[in-house]
Amino acid sequence: MKHIIKLLVLIPFFAGCTDLFEPALENYRSTDALYNEPGFAQGLLGHAYISNPVGSWSFNDVATDDAVSNDPNNGYMKMATGQWRSDNNAMDRWQYLRASWQYINLFLSIADEVKWANDPLVAEMFRDRMKGDAYGMRALYMYHLLMNHAGWAADGTLFGIPILTDPETVESDFNKPRNTFQECMEQLYADVDLATTLLPLNYGTLADDDNLVPAKYRTKGVTAAQYSRVFGDHARNRMSGAIAEAVRAQATLLAASPAYNQGTTYTWENAANQLAIVLNRLGSNPVGELDPTGNTWYLNASDIDNIREGVNPKEMLWRGTREENRSLEEDHFPPTLFGRGRLNPTQNLVDAFPMANGYPIGHASSGYNSQNPYADRDPRLARYIVINGSTAGTSNSVITTAADGTDNNALGKTETSTRTGYYMRKLLRQDVNANPSTPTNKYHYKPFIRYTELFLSYAEAANEAWGPTGTGSNSYSAYDVIKAIRKRAGVGASNNDAYLESAKGDKDAMRELIRSERRLELCFEGFRFWDLRRWKAPITESAKGLQIMGASYTEIPEVEKRSYQDYMYYGPIPYSEILKFSSLVQNKGW
Predict the structure, then answer these.
(1) Is residue 514 within a helix (H) or strand (E), and if so which, with residue range?
(2) Which 3 state secondary structure label does DSSP give 537?
(3) In whole angstroms, what is the distance from residue 337 CA to residue 429 CA?
C-alpha cells in the first residue's frame, strides 16, 4: 500500500517533467518584454537602488581612531590591525558596484524604446525621469568607486576606474584599462548634467493648476495631473536633481582634497561653489536654515514615527525607507540592555569633544580635570556616547562601564562588554526594548545625505579657498557655518564661543576646528575613514580606552594598534581582477 501511495504521488510529477526541464514557451521573457512592460524595464534600474552604496550602515569607524569592535570577526578591525590586502579588502566595492553599473548601462540602452505609458506626454515624462534617475545613480556609483579604488600608480598617474557607458555583452572586450581620476570626474559631471536636465530638483504633487507645470512640459500641453502622475509625491526619495547636485559636490570635495588634488584640476573653490549650489536652495540665508534639531535627528521621535513616506525632515536631503525594527539596538546596546555592544567609541574620540565653554580639553582656558573628565563637557558627548554613569534604555538604567563594575557592562567583563570603557549611544532609540521576552520595536531610517554634512563640507572648502571669513561669491563663510553648528550644539554659550573667535583670523586653526567639528557631528556615520585618507592625515594613531577604578581614571594607551602603511591612503584594485585583466594597473604599494 505504501508503494502504491508513493506512485500515486509521483505520477503528476512525472507528467509535468517536460515543463520542469524545458519551460513552456509562455514562460520565456524575450527582449521585447523590456520594451512592452515598463515594470520589467524598470527592474533593471532597480538594481541601482539594491546596490545603493549609502543604503546601509557600514560602521567603518572601527577602522579608524574613533572606535573598536568587540567582535573578533569584524572585517574593519582586521583591516586596521594589519590584514588589509588586495585579496582581503573589507572596503571592496569594485565588482559589486561595477556589476550594478552594467544594469544601469543596459537600462539606458533600452530606455528610449520602452512603452512607458499609453499617453504619449506621460510616456515622455516617465522616460525622462527614469533616464535621469539612471544618470544620477551612475554618478553616485562613480563617486563611491573613486573613494574606494582610485589611487596613484607607480608611474605617477592618478587613476580611477575603467569608464563604460555602454552595456557589455559576451562579445565585449573586458580587458579595459583604468581611466584617469580626472576623466572619471568629467564623466561624473557629465552624468550629473544629464540628470539635472531630465529630473526636477525635487518631487512633489502639484495643486490642480496647470501653470505650476515646468515650462518645458507645459508648452507641450502637460497638465498638473499628468505631471503629478510622473513626478508626484510617490517618487520622493528617488534620485532627484538636488540629490545629483549634492553627489557632484561631494565628489568635487574629494577631488580637491590633499590626497587627490595633485592629479586633478578641481580646486577648493570649485568644491565650495558646488556645495553652495545645493545649500543656496535652502533660502536667502542658508546658514539660518540649519535644522535646530539636526544633530539629534535619530532621537526626534515625532519626526520619525509620524512622517509620511517620502517626506524628509528638515535635516535630510535624502534618506532611506523608514522601517520598524530593533536591530541597531540589539547590536549596540550595552549587555544589560540585551545588546551586544559591538561598537566601542575610543578615548581618542571622547577627548575630541571640547568643554562646554568651547575650548579643547588640552587648552589652558578649558578648565578640564582628568580625574573628573565628564564634567562641563560639550553636550554632544553625553548625547552620542554612553559614559560611565550614563542612563540608558526604557528603564533609564545606570550603565557602569568602570573596570570594577559588577555587571556585564563593565570594561572587559565578557565578550559583549566594552573594550574601551564606552558604548555607542548615537543612532539608537532609547525607547526600544531589546529584551527578547518583551521586545519593543521602533521606527528607524538611514540618512543618505544630511544637510549638516554639506554645511561642514562647505566650511572646509570655503576656509581653504578664501580663509575663515571669506565668502567668494556666496553670502556665508566657514566661520558662519561653524558658529551656527557649535551654537546648535550648546558649545561656547557662556563666553560667546571665545575659542572660535580666536580661530576666526587663522586659516590653520580654523581648519583644525572644522575637522574636529566634522568628526563629532558625523561620528559613527561612516565618514572618519574617508576623511582621514583624503586629508592625508595620520592614520596610525592607536585606539585608546579608559580604565576607571573607584575614583581613579587611567588612560589605556593601546586598546588596539593601527597597522596601516602609507600606500593605504588609497584602496586596492581586487587582486583577482589584476590577475584576469592585463590592462588594469594596480595602485602603488598593493
Answers:
(1) helix 507-521
(2) coil
(3) 12
**Each residue's pLDDT tens digit, 89-109:** 999 999 999 999 999 999 999
pLDDT range class, residue 27, cuts 50, 70, 90: low
Q: Which residues contact 16 (CB under 8 A, 6 or more apart)?
A: none
Residues 86 and 586: beta-carbon distance below 8 Å? yes
CA distances from 185 to 150, 163, 193 (A): 11, 10, 12
User: Alpha-carbon distance 238 to 128, whole Å?
Assistant: 13
Say which residue, 119 or 307, is predicted with more confidence: 119
Instruction: With CA atoms as reference, report the closest residue to 53 among 9, 117, 99.
Output: 99
Counting Cβ atoms within 10 Å, is residue 156 exposed (0-12), middle (13-18) or buried (19+)? exposed
pLDDT band at 26, cuts 50/70/90? low
Cell 592629479 belongs to: 263
For residues 304 and 321, is the Cβ–Cβ distance under 8 A?
Answer: no
pLDDT (average), residues 299-304: 90
Which residues, listed in sequence order, are joined to residue 319 by a DSSP beta bridge?
447
For residues 240-274, one letter each, b for 16 or more C-beta atoms within 10 angstroms of the residue's C-beta and e for the rest, the string is: bbbbbbbbbbbbbbbbbbebbbebbebbbbbbbbb
3-state secondary structure 9-49: HHHHHHHCHHHHHCCCHHHCCCCHHHHHCHHHHHHHHHHHH
Residue type, 215: A
Tell me the three cell numbers of residue 202.
Answer: 525635487
Best CA proximity match to 431, nearest among 299, 338, 302, 341: 299
For residue 533, the surrounding DSSP H or E stretch is helix 528-534
364 phi and psi angles, rounded to 5 deg: -60, -25
Report in angstroms the alpha-carbon separations of 472 from 217, 246, 549: 35, 19, 53
Helices (H), 178-297: 181-198, 215-218, 224-231, 241-256, 268-279
Q: What is the pLDDT of residue 308?
A: 84
- The DSSP code sequence of 138-171 is HHHHHHHHHHHH-EE-TTS-EE------S---TT
- The DSSP code sequence of 219-232 is TTT--HHHHHHHHS
As to burial, measured by CB atoms within 10 angstroms (0-12 exposed, 13-18 middle, 19+ buried), residue 121 is middle
Give the phi and the psi of residue 556 in degrees, each rounded to 5. -95, 105
Residue 119's region, left for phi above 0, alpha for psi from -120 to 50, else beta, is: beta
Residue whose C-alpha cell reads 595602485 in the numeric block:
587
